[in-house]
What we know:
This protein has helices at residues 11-21, 42-55, 68-77, 123-136, 154-166, 179-188, 198-207, 226-234, 326-334, 368-376, 404-412; strands spanning 2-4, 7-9, 34-38, 58-61, 82-85, 91-92, 104-108, 118-122, 144-148, 172-173, 192-196, 214-219, 236-245, 249-254, 262-266, 271-273, 282-288, 291-301, 307-312, 317-319, 322-324, 339-349, 353-362, 387-391, 418-423. By secondary structure, the chain is an alpha/beta fold. The chain folds into three domains: 2-108, 3-Layer(aba) Sandwich (Rossmann fold), CATH 3.40.50.980; 125-314, Rossmann fold (3-Layer(aba) Sandwich); 316-423, ANL, C-terminal domain (GMP Synthetase, Chain A, domain 3, 2-Layer Sandwich). α1 crosses α2, α4 crosses α5 (154-166) and α7 crosses α8. The N and C termini lie far apart (58 Å). The model has no long low-confidence stretch (mean pLDDT 91).
Amino acid sequence: MLYVNDQFFDEAHFVAASRRFATLPALAGCRRYRYAVCLPATADWLALFFYLREAGGSVLPLHPELPREAARRLARRAGCHRLFYHDLEAEVLEGGITPSPGGELLQMSSGTTGEPKCIARRWSSIDAELDSYVRAFREPEAMTAVIACPVTHSYGLIAGLLVALRRGQVPVVVDNLNPKYLLRRLREVPKPLLYSSPAMLNTLCRLLPRGERLHAVMTSGTVLPGPWFQALKAGTEHLFQQYGCSEAGCIAINPAVGAATDIGVVLPHLTLVGAPGPAAPAELVFEGEDGLIHTRDLGYRRADGMLVFVARLDDTINVAGLNVYPQEVEDVVMAMDGIRDAVVLRKADPFAGERVCLLFSADRAVAPAALRDWCLDRLGRHQIPAEMVQVRDIARQANGKISRREVAARLEAGELALTETGEG
């Protein structure tokens, strides 16, 4: 049925696990409850997930490395009645919310632009997404899904694992995220299609021996920084990209990525509302069987149907009436030799209203004047960072996203290890 790292688990393994679960008092009448599940072994988590989904229960997947108090906090925020934390002795929680008939997958939003919130998606909606995904995206039918990202997250769970199973394939779940082990495992799998985070994909590209390429890669979660995208495209035979959000799952897929911002063609179970064009980018809004989905992403649709991402609406910076889209600045900065990562933040300015602040990490100390000269040759004056701060590292989330709100708060609190600071 599936591999976890090098170990194969057949259907009989999951059938036997289901029989055990059916005897647990905490799972009696499971349709009436919401369950938070935080189990350390991937195969155990998946067995309980399959059981609850088949039984019409509702489940909140939690990453196994969460401490108990953090798991409990998220479970309560999601309105769960029971928490399985590292074993099958369920903790009873107060204040649970009655689930929708038929059960739901519960997910916490990424929190990149605000407090994480609970998203509840009915299993029937996820089935519609799976059918649409498999019908529209035919290229990987002869490939083997290798899921090297958390299967407690919708990207790895739905797009990676459940899609592969829906296709009748035997997926490989890799929770040993040592890059050298992952490369070895990819070499053992016939025609592997890798689902992983942007940071891991960038690391693998750096480790690839000269002349070796990854067979196929799916990116998701965030638009890759320009230099990372170019390295990945050069090191991959088939590069795919998908676009989505917690409320809707996968929205669009690009089966032949030519540019990092080309996020895909809308899947058939959804419709783009308003169809904004290149001359007037607008919020990407979609309609499905559950109603309207407001993404808070600024973009447009080209004449060939391709959706193009411009920026998060919440991230756009207005400098004296001119819009600055952070990724454009970040890509320019990261193209400078030696710079590893960059994030652009908004800061209030008494004259321009807002100004651009840049945090970056590099292999060596970079003089702000040199970086400013680099930017002056490649950006408009309103896009030039008025403040440049070199830090040791920029923390990304597991899905590759950067929470600008969190980074700004840590900078303000003096929690970042600084190297250089410059004012424009």
